[in-house]
Design a protein that fits this description.
By secondary structure, this protein is an alpha+beta fold. 50% of the residues lie in helices and 16% in strands. The strands form 4 sheets. Strands 10-22-21-20-11-18-19 form a 7-stranded mixed β-sheet, with helices on both faces. A hairpin with a 2-residue loop joins β14 and β15. It starts with a helix and ends in a 32-residue tail after the last helix. The C terminus is likely disordered.
Length: 636
């Protein structure tokens, strides 16, 4: 069965091999005419098929290297080297088989993600009864709120909330983290993670299509489907290499007066090293990035990462931890602290902003329950308004709140802190002060980018100037653009020089600038779907180190691709020059070229490994108390 699968995968290889054996057998039996015509018909068919493919490529604006192979096959047939013409076809088809094998080897980390996609879920039949009786259903059919049984060592099918005790999960396929992570009751469990040694119950939090692992799978599919720059990279060498090859072959014919010499030279000029080495290198780079916890959407992104000359960073959740903590509650006259926090947290439960989560978390820590709202709406980048217990509550930026409550009093805050302003029924109710420290690795990543030649590094944030400056100082960025709306971020990114420009962000409001940048990288560990869809690459770990990893992998991959191409060119031209003397017969030359293919492929596979960045995350946060900005930074 395995043999049949291999035959089906590479039909041209086995068919060419069968025809070659038949031609040799007929020649040995004295039926030279039959052998000759069998070779002519078969090779002629391959030439016609290749020419059709070339025409399709030209119509798509792609001028490739197949012309050399076609000329070599025609030349060998013209001078009577029928066996050599078949060996050329075998070499070309064998090169494609080698490329396929090497490509599957290079893609295996990406493919592993697809193969592990959870398909079955065990939905409890009688939840709450204490019974573990479950019905197996397709993961796509799980509904939000369903109670699922996750058995030991099973894959979690959808994102959910842990209901039963503490448990450990292997999240290595999601984040690359090799150690199990521990979750307590109420913690979120991500789809794609593997349960530990105890069965647990999980309440479905999202549908399958919206869950973390399925989002990653979609990104991987995009990465595999994207047309990498490998063909374009080879195209840059196609015309000069073709011209040089034809000149060498024509010169050999003219000097020797023997047309066979033309065929002998061109046999060694077949373009397999150019066509195979670069794709394998880029596939290897994609696979290595996936293993490092970064899903890159295609080889084109790998090349852009390698060439990036400017970098822009969002602040909240990108340069900072994205987990703001409430440090003070300052209630206005007529309100007490708990009432102020209760109203603000209840309004913020309808906001998706990371800072709203900090306010809600503070209320939960104080045992303050959230109240439902009769009406709620979020004004992008400004704040949120909700009707709670018949009272209109506004939480947001000082200017926004002041426009609705004229008696709003601005509060002085310490460096790195920001105040969320609250109004109730048109009256100023007080402020909530939040703070968010920079990620411990942010300063090291910024310094590494400078050491690697990144010419310009800037911060683009919707936060207030004082808060943005505090974070920038802590992480080593001197070029700060603060208090920006999403469209202003897009404009600044478009105007940045030098290019290509790399943009790193995490939130929904970063999606426009990520899409508009030359290279957009989303911090996707916390499931910012819109940002991940708009970005060119997604960092699955909750660490900025993934950005440095992506750039390092991109540069190493491009370097390997170029070196592999030059190895192929150098060996081919050197062998062509030797062949001009007539010491390499056409058949032998075709076989030697297969060795050149193998050499370039083996070198291209070096993209699967590479030098480390040398960066490690410090144990603690950056030495500055810096804020994520509060609702004053809802565009951050």
């Amino acid at each position: 069965m395995r043999l049949l699968r291999r035959l089906a995968r590479y039909p041209l290889v086995w068919l060419t091999l069968a025809v070659l054996i038949a031609v040799l057998s007929l020649g040995a039996a004295g039926s030279t005419d039959a052998a000759k015509w069998l070779a002519i018909v078969y090779v002629g068919g391959v030439i016609a098929w290749t020419l059709l493919g070339m025409i399709r490529d030209v119509l798509r604006g792609h001028v490739g290297l197949d012309i050399l192979a076609v000329v070599a096959m025609i030349a060998t047939l013209a001078v009577g080297e029928y066996v050599a013409s078949l060996v050329i076809v075998l070499m070309l088809s064998g090169g494609e088989a080698l490329e396929d094998y090497a490509g599957r080897r290079a893609r295996r980390e990406l493919t592993a993600l697809l193969d592990r996609s959870p398909r079955i879920a065990h939905v409890l039949v009688h939840p709450g009864s204490g019974s573990d009786e479950a019905q197996d259903t397709d993961a796509d059919d799980v509904r939000i709120g369903d109670i699922l049984l996750i058995r030991p060592s099973e894959i979690v099918p959808v994102d959910g909330t842990l209901l039963s005790g503490e448990a450990s999960f292997d999240e290595s396929s999601l984040t690359g983290e090799s150690l199990p992570v521990h979750r307590a009751v109420g913690d979120e469990v991500l789809s794609g993670s593997v349960n530990g040694s105890h069965a647990v119950h999980v309440r479905a939090l999202r549908r399958s299509a919206d869950s973390q692992y399925q989002q990653i799978v979609e990104l991987v599919k995009q990465a595999q489907d994207e047309r990498a720059p490998t063909v374009r990279l080879a195209d840059r060498f196609a015309v000069p290499f073709t011209a040089v090859s034809l000149v060498i072959a024509g010169t050999a014919w003219a000097v020797s007066g023997d047309p066979t010499r033309f065929a002998e030279v061109l046999v060694l000029a077949t373009p397999c090293p150019l066509l195979i080495a670069a794709p394998v290198a880029f596939l290897g780079g994609l696979s290595r990035a996936a293993k490092a916890g970064v899903v890159v959407k295609g080889g084109g992104v790998i090349e852009q990462l390698a060439r990036a000359r400017s970098a822009a960073f969002d602040k909240t959740g990108t340069l900072t931890e994205g987990r703001p903590d409430l440090v003070a509650v300052d209630a206005a006259d007529g309100f007490d602290e708990d009432e102020l926090l209760a109203l603000a947290a209840s309004a913020e439960q309808y906001s998706s902003h990371v800072l709203a989560a900090g306010i809600r978390r503070a209320a939960a820590d104080r045992g303050i329950p959230l109240r439902p709202a009769a009406d709620a709406q979020e004004v992008a980048t400004n704040g949120v308004t909700a009707v709670i217990d018949g009272r209109t509550v506004v939480v947001g930026k000082p200017a926004y709140v002041a426009s609705l409550a004229p008696d709003t009093v601005r509060r002085d805050v310490d460096t790195g802190e920001a105040a969320a302003y609250v109004a109730v029924d048109g009256r100023f109710a007080g402020t909530l002060v939040l703070a968010d420290d920079p990620r411990p690795e942010s300063a090291a990543v910024v310094a590494w980018l400078r050491e690697q030649g990144m010419e310009r590094i800037v911060m683009l944030t919707g936060d207030t100037k004082t808060t943005a400056d505090a974070v920038a100082r802590a992480v080593g960025i001197t070029d700060v653009n603060a208090e920006l709306l999403p469209r202003e971020k897009v404009h600044l990114a478009a105007e940045m020089r030098p290019r290509p420009v790399l943009m790193v962000g995490d939130g929904v409001n970063d999606a426009p600038v990520l899409a508009a940048s030359d290279i957009g990288i989303a911090m996707g560990a916390k499931g910012a779907t819109a940002a991940g869809e708009a970005a060119d690459a997604v960092v699955l770990k909750d660490s900025l180190l993934g950005v440095a990893e992506a750039i390092s992998i991109g540069r190493h991959t491009l370097r390997v691709a170029y070196v592999a191409i030059w190895i192929g060119i150098a060996l081919s031209i050197g062998l062509m020059l030797v062949a001009t003397t007539g010491v390499i017969p056409a058949v032998v030359g075709a076989l030697i070229q297969e060795v050149v293919d193998l050499a370039t492929i083996l070198y291209a596979l070096r993209a699967l490994t590479g030098p480390p960045t040398g960066l490690t995350a410090p144990d603690g946060p950056a030495p500055a108390h810096a804020s994520a900005g509060g609702p004053g930074a809802r565009a951050a």
